[in-house]
Sequence to fold (99 residues):
Amino acid sequence: MFGASDDILGAVESGTDIEKKIFDIYQTCRSKDEIDDAFDELQVAKKEQVETKIHQTKQKIINRLDEDVARRLKDKKEKSELMLNELQIALFQLVSLVL
Fold:
């Protein structure tokens, strides 16, 4: 129930508007199931806005990354992949030896 409200709070809509909708849900719904259903409906209604906001935020982060930071992250990724490959080879050799 509260997880759904957390997701939609990040929507483009102003905080006051969403607070009013949440307040209305609690005022009109009488059971936990009704509240859950109302939050599910609200989440579905705001899904596109939330996804758009998440995408925009990711793009801002990527666009503002310093080139040096981006290069270091890429290097770390490549090193991690190499280490994983080495571990897989060592594991395969160990299994072959045991069998």
In short: The radius of gyration is 23 Å. Helices lie at 2-9, 15-28, 32-64, 67-98. The chain has a mean pLDDT of 83.
